[in-house]
Amino acid sequence: MTQSNGRAAIEWSKNERQNEWADLSDGCYILRTNVTGWTPQKLWQAYIQLTQAEQAFRIHKSALDIRPIWHQTSGRVQAHILVCFLAYVLWKTLEQLCRRAGLGDEPRRVFNEIANIRSVDIVLPTRDGREIRKRCVVRPTEHQAILLQRLGLRLPSHLKMHDM
Question: What are the tens digits of pLDDT across the range 55-73?
Answer without folding.
Answer: 766 666 665 555 556 667 8
